[in-house]
């Protein structure tokens, strides 16, 4: 998306969002690893390693860590751009929780559209404490949803912009997606903001999730 030639190629394929994997003029959304494996003809088991209950527990831990670290970021740093992306710290931290809201809405029957992932925080949400407080509310929603959710096997199918998918798969993807951004926030705090992250998550905390090897590409 930061490369004009790459963006032109993406648009020529007809893809409206990233990530995608392409072969010639054909492509598949890479939101679903299973779809990528099928598209490439690979023999790989992409089913989630963790049960839905285990994923919800992981997600709760990740959202708690996100709120904790966001509260450490000085308000005057929130408007800065993070590395080579056209995204501010304010937008990225809000995005972590918006991913979880997309999951919850889709589990309740709404379609998970790509717009969830590009939403920006409302104008009144300017301070770190406001974003973290919003995150606390999303975390409470996640916990309450799971307690009352009747399809705990994860077999229920939800509507997403990359197809009809089992909730189990969307739950896993949402969990590691938010988790990867928490890793990026921790890296940015250490290397660019000059703040020591309080009790950062470890590789053991992410065990069982298909996390990328790199914190940033």
Molecular structure report:
The chain has 217 residues and is mainly alpha-helical. Helices cover 50% and strands 7% of the residues. The chain has seven helices and four strands; from the N terminus they run H-E-E-H-H-H-H-H-E-E-H. The protein has helices at 4-13, 33-40, 52-70, 89-107, 115-118, 128-148, 167-193; strands at residues 20-23, 26-29, 157-160, 163-166. The chain has a two-stranded antiparallel ribbon. A two-stranded antiparallel sheet has the order 3-4. A hairpin with a 2-residue loop joins strand 3 (157-160) and strand 4 (163-166). The longest helix has 27 residues, at 167-193. The radius of gyration is 17 Å and the shape is globular. It starts with a helix and ends in a 24-residue tail after the last helix.
User: In this structure, how is the largest beta sheet organized?
Assistant: 2 strands, antiparallel
What is Rg? Answer: 17 Å
Query: What level of helicity do the residues show?
Result: 40-55%
Give the CA-based shape.
Answer: globular
């Amino acid at each position: 998306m930061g490369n004009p030639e790459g963006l032109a190629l993406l648009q020529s394929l007809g893809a409206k969002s990233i990530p995608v994997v392409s072969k010639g003029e054909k492509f598949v959304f890479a939101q679903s690893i299973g779809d990528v494996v099928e598209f490439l003809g690979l023999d790989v088991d992409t089913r989630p390693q963790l049960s839905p209950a285990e994923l919800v527990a992981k997600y709760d831990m990740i959202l708690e860590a996100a709120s904790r670290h966001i509260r450490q970021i000085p308000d005057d740093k929130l408007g800065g751009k993070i590395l080579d992306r056209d995204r501010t710290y304010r937008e990225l931290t809000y995005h972590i929780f918006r991913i979880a809201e997309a999951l919850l809405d889709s589990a309740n029957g709404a379609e998970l559209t790509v717009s969830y992932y590009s939403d920006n925080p409302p104008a009144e949400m300017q301070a770190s404490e406001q974003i973290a407080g919003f995150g606390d509310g999303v975390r409470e929603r996640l916990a309450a949803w799971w307690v009352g959710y009747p399809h705990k096997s994860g077999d229920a199918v939800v509507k997403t912009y990359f197809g009809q998918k089992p909730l189990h798969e969307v739950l896993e993807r949402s969990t590691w997606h938010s988790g990867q951004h928490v890793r990026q926030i921790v890296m940015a705090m250490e290397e660019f903001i000059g703040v020591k992250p309080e009790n950062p998550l470890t590789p053991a905390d992410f065990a069982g999730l298909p996390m990328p090897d790199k914190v940033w590409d």
